[in-house]
């Protein structure tokens, strides 16, 4: 298994002989407005892609965890071939097909893709009314003979859905969307440093990889901040925090 963090939550995954593009956000730096009701006016994305876009346009499949624009943007829908195999959560097929894609598989529980079993897991994209407004989100677990079990948690805070996935699948690696994304009002809608501490304590057997930082203006926990917080608790060796373009 090899994983490249492209940027934010966008990953390139090489797994059991197949390649997957996950949550493609390909917009050029600064072309999108700030997230509404956020605490600053920086335009998104905050940083450019770490390489030429052509490198990521021909995977075996594209996995879209949910349809928020920082995970499935207009540039991705325009640049990816319409014949691309798209894997998504239940309920997102019509929105994806409206952009011209024709090979779409909704995952309600699990599917087999070229010998790889992909399970859908739940998540909670915030708390209270904000969490409800953010809508359904999903994580996904990859399993295949001879490969480590990989859990991509998606846009979720630390919650019962995540605990259930960790207990059920005992992943060797867990990729979390950190960054503590939040609006002016309310709690974080993705994992912040406290959520990361909770996950490490709950599942010390999984290798944690933290992404989803330094790219969108309402993700307020930076890589530097997370490293500092982990270091202060002697936990820095428990979490991998890749830079854009870096391979794991």
Question: What is the strand and helix layout of this fold?
Answer:
Blueprint: E1 2-7, E2 10-15, E3 18-22, E4 61-64, H1 74-79, E5 85-89, H2 93-97, E6 103-107, E7 110-113, E8 116-121, H3 128-134, E9 139-143, E10 150-152, H4 160-169, E11 173-177, H5 193-202, E12 207-211, H6 223-232, E13 239-240
Parallel strand pairs: 3-4, 4-5, 5-6, 10-11, 11-12, 12-13
Antiparallel strand pairs: 1-2, 2-3, 7-8, 8-9, 9-10
Structure keywords:
6 helices, 7-stranded mixed β-sheet, alpha/beta, Metallo-beta-lactamase, Chain A, 25% strand, 248 residues, 13 strands, 6-stranded mixed β-sheet
Task: Write a concise synopsis of the structure shown.
The protein is α/β, with parallel strands linked by helices and 248 residues long.
Q: Proportion of β residues?
A: 15-25%
Rg is: 17 Å
Structure class = alpha/beta
Given as residue ranges, the uncertain stretches (5+ residues, pLDDT < 50) are: none
Shape designation: globular
Could you give the count of β-strands?
A: 13
Largest sheet: 7 strands, mixed
Please give the CATH class. Answer: Alpha Beta
Helical residues, percent? 10-25%
> In what order do the strands lie side by side in the largest sheet?
7-8-9-10-11-12-13
Averaging pLDDT over every residue, what do you get?
97
CATH architecture classification: 4-Layer Sandwich
Order of helices and strands: EEEEHEHEEEHEEHEHEHE
Q: How far apart are the first and last residues' alpha carbons, in Å?
A: 9 Å
CATH homologous superfamily placement = Ribonuclease Z/Hydroxyacylglutathione hydrolase-like
Q: What is the overall number of helices?
A: 6
């Amino acid at each position: 298994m090899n994983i490249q963090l492209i940027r934010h939550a966008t990953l390139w995954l090489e797994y059991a002989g197949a390649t997957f593009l996950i949550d493609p956000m390909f917009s050029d730096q600064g072309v999108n407005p700030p997230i509404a009701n956020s605490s600053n006016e920086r335009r998104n994305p905050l940083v450019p892609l770490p390489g030429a876009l052509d490198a990521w346009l021909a995977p075996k499949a594209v996995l879209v965890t949910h349809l928020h624009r920082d995970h499935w943007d207009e540039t991705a829908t325009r640049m990816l071939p319409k014949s691309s195999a798209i894997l998504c959560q239940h309920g997102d097929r019509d929105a994806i097909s409206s952009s011209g894609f024709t090979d779409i598989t909704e995952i309600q529980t699990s599917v087999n893709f070229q010998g790889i079993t992909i399970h859908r897991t739940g998540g909670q994209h915030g708390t209270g009314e904000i969490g409800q407004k953010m809508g359904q989100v999903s994580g996904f677990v990859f399993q295949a003979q001879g490969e480590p079990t990989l859990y991509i948690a998606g846009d979720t805070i630390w919650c019962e859905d995540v605990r259930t996935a960790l207990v059920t699948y005992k992943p060797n690696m867990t990729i979390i969307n950190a960054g503590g994304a939040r609006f002016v009002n309310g709690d974080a809608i993705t994992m912040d440093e406290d959520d990361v501490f909770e996950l490490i304590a709950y599942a010390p057997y999984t290798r944690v990889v933290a992404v989803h930082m330094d790219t969108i203006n309402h993700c307020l926990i930076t890589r530097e901040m997370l490293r500092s917080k982990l270091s202060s608790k002697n936990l820095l060796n428990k979490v991998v925090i890749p830079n854009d373009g870096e391979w794991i």
